[in-house]
Amino acid sequence: MVDHTEEEWEQMIKGNLDAVFHLLKLTVPAMRSQQFGRIVNYGFQSANTAAGWINRAAFSAAKVGLVSLTKSIAYEEAEHGITANMVCPGDIIGEMKEATILESRKKHDPYTPIGRSGTGEDIARMVLFFCENKSDMITGTVVDVNGGLDVIHQQRK
């Protein structure tokens, strides 16, 4: 952390926390007026438990702050039909970011307990679920989508 410049710190906080605050200030009034809204923020695995992350202090501090902001807006806006949740992906890297779940199932991943790498489609499915009309009872929730792999503290086999 001490190696971060003040500019790097501010960039992480502004890009990962402040930007969401400003976006919510612009969009929540419209959601209130229609008595419906879905807010889905993006975190990192275990952000809900405020895990530290070596060499990523600014990023993790911003995302953990975003957990609190997500939960706060969830409670504040529930009466207006607005939900707010967070998706926290695991280790989705390289070509898997754009891959489908079917493609991922064709490649065994010995490091992920379910046996395959996560994909962008896995994350998209969770976001889509949060956005459904029938998901109105789910708010203030933070969901890890990681196939059982502890990304931050992972130990390779």
Rg (CA only): 17 Å
Helix content: 40-55%
DSSP E strands, number? 3
Structural class: alpha/beta
Classify the beta-strand content into a percent band. 5-15%
CATH H-tier superfamily: NAD(P)-binding Rossmann-like Domain
What's the total helix number?
Answer: 4
GO molecular function, one term: oxidoreductase activity
Protein name: 3-oxoacyl-[acyl-carrier protein] reductase
Keywords: Oxidoreductase
Pfam families: adh_short_C2 (PF13561)
Could you characterize what this model shows?
- This protein is α/β, with parallel strands linked by helices.
- The chain has one domain: 3-Layer(aba) Sandwich (Rossmann fold).
- 43% of the residues lie in helices and 11% in strands.
- The chain has four helices and three strands, in the order αβαβααβ.
- It has helices at residues 6-34, 57-77, 101-105, 120-131, and strands at 37-42, 82-89, 142-145.
- Strands 1-2-3 form a three-stranded parallel β-sheet, sandwiched between helices.
- Helix 2 links the parallel strand 1 (37-42) and strand 2.
- The chain is globular and about 50 Å long.
- The two termini are 29 Å apart.
- Belongs to the short-chain dehydrogenases/reductases (SDR) family.
- InterPro entries: NAD(P)-bd_dom_sf, SDR_fam.
- Keywords: Oxidoreductase.
- It comes from Gracilibacillus boraciitolerans JCM 21714.
- GO terms for molecular function: oxidoreductase activity.
Kindly list the characteristics that best describe this protein.
157 residues, alpha/beta, Rossmann fold, 4 helices, 11% strand, globular, oxidoreductase activity
